Amino acid sequence: MGEPAGIGPEVALAAWHALGGKIGKRTLKLVGDAKALRDIPANVLIESHALGAPVRMGHADPANTHAVVDAIDTAVAMAMQGAAGAVVTAPIHKASLLQGGFEFAGHTEYLQKITEAPRAVMMLAGGGLRVVPLTIHIAVSEVPRRISEVAIVETGEIILRALKRDFGIAKPRLAISGLNPHAGEDGEIGREERDIIAPAVKALSAEGIVLGPLPADTMFHEEARARYDAALCMYHDQALIPLKTLAFWDGVNVTLGLPIVRTSPDHGTALDIAGKGKADPRSMIAAIKMAADIADARFGK
Fold first, then answer.
1. What is the helix (H) or strand (E) element at residue 129, kind and residue range?
2. What is the Cα–Cα distance from 21 to 5, expressed in whole angstroms?
3. CA geometry: angle 299, 300, 301, nearest 5 deg
4. Is the dihedral of CA 159, 296, 282, 49 positive or negative?
5. How far is the C-alpha of 110 from the C-alpha of 120, rounded, in Å?
6. Topology annotation, domain 1-120+250-301
7. Beta strand 173-177 pairing with 209-214
8. How far apart are CA 190 and CA 267, in angstroms?
9. pLDDT tens digits in sequence order for the chain, 301 residues long
10. pTM over the 0.85 mark
11. Cβ distance 124 to 239 under 8 Å?
């Protein structure tokens, strides 16, 4: 369901209709409150906790935090129990949830907690590009302190395993960016590349083809992208700006490292257009298709 006052329910319903209620041999179910997910057959809706306040389109209400979170919990529990092949989440409104008592920066961090995963990794895919930010929803000023060789190695291992298992790439290639301009200019513009990132690249080379640290400003043009299957970047915008430039309307968020399959559209709640019939469901449709493809790769069609 996602944020009921945003475009999540709208694009979920539009995707359900566009796909005819199924993807391959898998049926599509919608999880949430019936007042948010209107006009669908009763056997399609899996009801979770009821909304705490009436929905005013375009106005996220912290009183609905419990309902938003319970919809996530319900869907994840089904996937953990084997009753669902994958979970596709609609966007949540983080500020509203935080005001309502939610203690996590976003879906990724919460899914790691409730599935008890050692590390959850956010991958964005679309436009022939897959990117992973090492650090996610933190201030840019905090990024250098959060980068470590262990974090890069653990994240890189998860990416390489996912490329093999979930994306069917037998010999995956991973590119790893630097943090500083020109990847540090051999220590002249920062030492993170020499002291942290380069040793991590060396350690990961035993797991597959790993390139880096690479200057972030030259690793996303067409010829450069042909050299790797996924890119690990040091912070949020370093990864998401190229992805959203190439695939703004059909990018997909995939959470790696979980015991379940989870994807989501790569956009927010868009409160400014919610309820106006302007929401584009392409990213949600792409997220559903990718979730089905990964589920087929893991569990068989």
1. strand 129-133
2. 23
3. 130
4. negative
5. 9
6. Isopropylmalate Dehydrogenase (3.40.718)
7. parallel
8. 33
9. 999 999 999 999 999 999 999 999 899 999 999 999 988 888 999 999 999 999 999 999 999 999 999 999 999 999 999 999 999 999 999 999 999 999 998 899 999 999 999 999 999 999 999 999 999 989 999 999 999 999 999 999 999 999 999 999 999 999 999 999 999 999 999 999 999 999 999 999 998 899 999 999 999 999 999 999 999 999 999 999 999 999 988 899 999 999 999 999 999 999 999 999 999 999 999 999 999 999 999 998 7
10. yes
11. yes
- Nearest 5°: the CA angle 97, 285, 289 is 110
Selecting from 3.40.1440.10, 3.40.718.10, 1.25.40.880, 1.20.1250.20, what CATH number does the domain 128-246 have?
3.40.718.10
| Residue where the block lists tokens 């959203």 | 244
Tokens 């069917």 — which residue? 168
93: nearest Cα among 12, 11, 8: 8
> Any idea what the Cα angle at residue 192 is, between residues 129 and 253, rounded to 5°?
25
